[in-house]
Amino acid sequence: MRDHQPQLIQSFLEKAQKQSTLQCIYQRTTILNGIRLLIRQVIPESLYPWYNVANIHQGILILHAANANYLMYLHYEQTHLLNIIREQILPSLISIHIKIDPTITMRAEKIVQDNNPSACTLKTLKTPFRQLGEKSANILLHIAKDCPEKLKNTLERLALFSVNRDTLLSDNQ
Questions:
Q1: Number of structural domains, the chain?
Q2: Are 42 and 109 part of one and the same domain?
Q3: Average pLDDT in the chain
Q4: Pfam families in the record, alphabetically (predicted)?
Q5: Which of 39, 65, 120, 151 lies in disulfide reach of 147, CB 3.0 to 4.6 Å?
Q6: Residue 102 contacts by C-beta under 8 Å, 6 or more apart in sequence?
Q7: Residues 144, 153: Cα–Cα separation, whole Å
Q8: pLDDT recorded at residue 127
């Protein structure tokens, strides 16, 4: 019978004699993880969820930022990051390219909210949903009476977003 015990992937790859595809992937992920940990030592902890180490391609490190604010901060730190990464992990690194990836925002907001529920996130900064006033809704309904059917239906639906729908409906019937 064979021994079917789980093995660490690191030990498996170290035993491989030639450079396999799996070993290349392992080396790349090890380098990217090392860069991620090194960047965490440089930037403030509050920015951790708002960026991501994406890839290394032809000597260029690609970082993703959640939005333009974090992109600008990473641009300010770009030379410092480049020098540290060259010194400690990857001497062949040519430059750092930073892109905006809006999908990071959803993940980061969840992380921030889980760690600090009273934290101010993008969702709490958005303006609240606005409603039409009663007078504006009545004007829309009045205009809708003389419009073609499709526009009439659209204007009537829009008018239903007024503050007091029951009053509006009873006034126009």
A1: 2
A2: yes
A3: 78
A4: DciA
A5: 151
A6: 66, 67
A7: 8
A8: 42
